[in-house]
Structures are given as C-alpha cells and as structure tokens.
Amino acid sequence: MYFYNFHIDAWTIIGLAGQFLFFLSFAVQWYRSEQAKRSILPQEFWLLRLIASLLLIAYVLHRRDIVFLIAAILQIIFYLRNIILIKGQE
Predict the structure, then answer these.
(1) Cβ atoms within 10 A of the Cβ of 76, count?
(2) Angle 57-67-56 (CA atoms, 0-180°, nearest 5)?
(3) At what angle do helices 10-36 and 43-63 cross, to 10 degrees?
(4) Which residue of 22, 24, 43, 66 has the smallest Cβ count within 10 Å?
(5) Separation CA 41–CA 57 (nearest Å)
(6) Closest to 59 (Cα-Cα) out of 19, 23, 1, 5
(7) Where are the domains of the chain?
(8) pLDDT tens figures, 29-41
(9) Hey, how many other C-beta atoms are within 10 angstroms of the C-beta on 48?
(10) Mode of pairing for the β-strands spanning 6-7 and 2-3
C-alpha cells in the first residue's frame, strides 16, 4: 500500500510503532514532571524507550540500515543501565 508515495507495509508499521513509543516516553516524562512540579525521568520513560529501541532494531535489521542499527543498540545500553539504577533505589 502507498500513502502519498510512501510505501507502507508491516515493517513500516513496526518502525512507526517504535517512533510513537519514543514520542510517548517524552509525553510521560512531561506529564510526570508536571505532577511533581520538577523535572524527573520516571521508570516508564526508560521502559518505553527500551521497547521503542527493540522495535526499531527489528525494523532496521529488516531494512538493513547499519547506521540506525548501531545507534539503536548503543541507546539500549543507556536505557538498561538507567532501569537498573532505578531498581537499585527501590
């Protein structure tokens, strides 16, 4: 299927879902910061980013984009470390 000359297939949907989760992580961070009346990065922020990165890795492996793949893999390291640090504080 095409949408304004863009090819849309199942892999495109996976990539878009990953991008949406990245957006959602910022929305959650903003909402939780507004509630706390200070800037915070809640655990949900890191979990959403981790899931988004995993979806995008699947997408870029299929599309064979080495630059995007390396970036997504490196990001996962930081997301996992932040989740581990948060778990250690509980």
Answers:
(1) 15
(2) 20
(3) 160
(4) 66
(5) 23
(6) 19
(7) 2-89
(8) 999 999 999 988 8
(9) 22
(10) antiparallel
